[in-house]
């Protein structure tokens, strides 16, 4: 499959008055053309910083270091701000959690829709306005002609998020990065927005990176999933690998905290005890060691590599080493949470 994005050995840290926060500590992954990749993990695990580093949208105290970031085969890691501006909005679209902070309250939805389109596509105002009406219709906003002339405060939360999606898709980007796009919405609207992203993906063949803390959100949309913890990818694989054959204790913890829609009776969800590691002084060993039920001596001393399992399924856990002593116990645990 052809890759639209390839990120190699990305490290991002933030300079603060108490030291450097190592938010992303060597992340390598790719996204194929037209596919949806989920990046899942608790807040502070480095998932949003990874994407903001790729887009070069971080504050001045950020330091990004990487081998390469290939977008359509071209290394964009060395691009100037001007070159990045040309890519952002046109070839890479973005949707954020809170549309109110991304939409400008002083401009109508129509004005915000046509701005980037006119700039990137060198289109006339009339052409851009027509395209805007078409996009609002495509994302399911009724009476798009009328809605074009309204301001963000005249839209409901779900409609604002739809408008944001329309804005980010105006130039028909090849890659759409959606950072917690449904977190601020109620469950029904959340399902509608995810359905919408799914249908747009198949209509426009847009590749999507969906960033979320909620494994349940990625289940329906994403064919592959990266699970992040403590600034590194701890497990990666197909959605089936992660949901049915997960091999990392952190993934099991995430699965236990997601309600199973197939279960009729009320399910007891189990949160993961403990706190994520302090990334000012990241542990030398496994970042999950303090919260893991299977911690061994080696876990405290050495960061596990991403062990290759099969067909692109990888897990950064010493239990996947061929000589791991506690693997049977771990597999029993997997059976307990598996079979969803
Ligand atoms: Fe747990 Fe060790 Fe695996 Fe880390 S490497 S998840 S501490 S068993």
CATH topology of the largest domain, what is it called? Rossmann fold
Annotated CATH architecture of the largest domain: 3-Layer(aba) Sandwich
Alpha-carbon distance between the two ends: 29 Å
Count of folded domains: 2
Could you give the order of the helices and strands?
EEEHEEEHEHHHHHEHEHEEHHHEEH
Unreliable spans? 336-340
User: What is the overall shape?
Assistant: globular
Class per helix and strand makeup: alpha/beta
DSSP, total strands:
13
Described by strand count, sense and barrel closure, the largest sheet is: 8 strands, mixed
- Small molecules (ligands, ions, cofactors) in the structure: iron/sulfur cluster
Our Rg estimate from Cα atoms comes to 21 Å
Question: Helix count, per DSSP?
Answer: 13
The CATH H-level superfamily of the largest domain is P-loop containing nucleotide triphosphate hydrolases
- The CATH first-level class of the largest domain comes to Alpha Beta
Strand line-up of the largest beta sheet: 7-8-9-3-10-11-13-12
Q: Share of helix among residues?
A: 25-40%
Mean pLDDT: 89
Instruction: Tell me the strand percentage band.
Output: 15-25%
């Amino acid at each position: 499959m052809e890759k639209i994005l390839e990120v190699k050995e990305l490290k991002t840290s933030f300079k603060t008055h108490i030291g450097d926060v190592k938010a992303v500590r060597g992340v390598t992954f790719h996204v194929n053309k037209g596919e949806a990749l989920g990046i899942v993990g608790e807040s502070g695990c480095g998932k949003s910083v990874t994407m903001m580093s790729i887009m070069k949208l971080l504050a001045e105290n950020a330091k990004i270091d990487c081998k390469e970031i290939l977008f359509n085969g071209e290394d964009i890691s060395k691009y100037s701000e001007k070159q990045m501006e040309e890519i952002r909005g046109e070839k890479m679209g973005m949707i954020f959690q809170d549309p109110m902070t991304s939409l400008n309250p002083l401009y109508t939805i129509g004005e915000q829709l046509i701005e980037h389109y006119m700039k990137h596509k060198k289109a006339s105002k009339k052409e851009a306005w027509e395209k805007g009406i078409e996009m609002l219709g495509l994302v399911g906003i009724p009476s798009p002609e009328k809605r074009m002339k309204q301001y963000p405060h005249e839209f409901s939360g779900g409609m604002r998020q739809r408008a944001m999606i329309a804005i980010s898709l105006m130039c028909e980007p090849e890659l759409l990065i959606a950072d917690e796009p449904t977190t601020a919405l109620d469950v029904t609207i959340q399902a509608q927005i995810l359905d919408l992203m799914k249908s747009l993906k198949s209509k426009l063949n847009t590749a999507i990176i969906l960033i979320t803390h909620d494994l349940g959100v990625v289940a329906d949309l994403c064919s592959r999933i990266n699970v992040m913890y403590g600034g590194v990818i701890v497990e990666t694989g197909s959605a089936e690998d992660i949901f049915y054959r997960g091999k990392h204790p952190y993934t099991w913890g995430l699965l236990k905290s997601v309600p199973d829609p197939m279960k009729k009776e009320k399910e007891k969800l189990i949160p993961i005890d403990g706190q994520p590691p302090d990334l000012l002084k990241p542990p030398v060993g496994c970042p999950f060691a303090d919260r893991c039920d299977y911690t061994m001596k080696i876990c405290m001393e050495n960061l596990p590599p991403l062990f290759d399992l099969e067909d692109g399924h990888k897990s950064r856990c010493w239990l996947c080493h061929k000589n791991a002593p506690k693997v049977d116990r771990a597999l029993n645990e997997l059976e307990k949470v598996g079979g969803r």
